[in-house]
Design a protein that fits this description.
Blueprint: H1 2-29, H2 35-78, H3 85-109, H4 113-125, H5 131-140, H6 146-156, H7 160-187, H8 189-198
């Protein structure tokens, strides 16, 4: 799996960078070496550090992009996968009813969209089949919070395949966060600690 590959590359990258930093520290602290030799070795190791950081960073970023695209595509395809014609027709009919209902909700709540939001929140939390009509009406009326309600409703109604893809996306997001923190730690350990805490 690509997520395991990302984790493996991250660990390899850290290991190589730490090994090179240890070499650099050893040369810096060893009085046996002449200053010219130390300078030469320091420059060589710094170039190698930059190369390792760049090469692994590029590979990891590419793998993250590929994995994310693959997971998103799979997630979107999973919504209707396994549905027979009868189920698909039922979903289409439900969608058409919700569309009509949303137009009615818009007409009735133009003056007081906040009231519509509180109703919609209860309906989404109860996971009622006409919740999409309320969400669509809120979005058409530009009511703040409509996107969050839509996200909550969709998550409540994921099929098993969508749940699986969503779990993989969460694992990928964790890898992205760890990678960002690791890159930041190379420049500023304090900033990395803050990122790790708040991300």
């Amino acid at each position: 799996m690509s997520i395991a590959q990302i984790e493996k590359l991250r660990k390899e990258r850290i290991s190589k960078l730490e090994g090179l930093k240890a070499q650099l520290e050893k040369i810096e602290n060893d009085d046996m070496y002449a200053p010219e030799y130390k300078l030469q070795k320091r420059n060589e190791i710094k170039k190698e550090l930059e190369a390792v950081s760049f090469d692994y960073g590029t590979k990891i970023a590419e793998l993250i992009d590929q994995t994310e695209s693959k997971l998103l595509q799979g997630f979107h395809n999973a919504e209707y996968k396994g549905m027979d014609d009868k189920q698909a027709a039922k979903e289409l009919l439900k969608e058409m009813r919700n569309r009509d209902m949303s137009e009615d909700l818009i007409a009735r709540n133009k003056e007081n969209p906040e009231h519509l939001y509180s109703e919609a929140e209860k309906i989404v939390n109860a996971n009622l089949p006409y919740a999409p009509a309320y969400i669509r009406a809120l979005k058409k009326l530009n009511v703040s919070g409509a996107d969050m309600l839509e996200k909550n409703y969709k998550e409540l109604n994921f099929n098993e395949l969508q749940k699986s893809y969503n779990k993989e996306m969460e694992l990928l997001r964790e890898q992205i966060k760890l990678f960002e923190v690791e890159k930041t730690a190379e420049e500023s350990p304090f900033k990395a600690a803050l990122m790790d805490h708040y991300l």
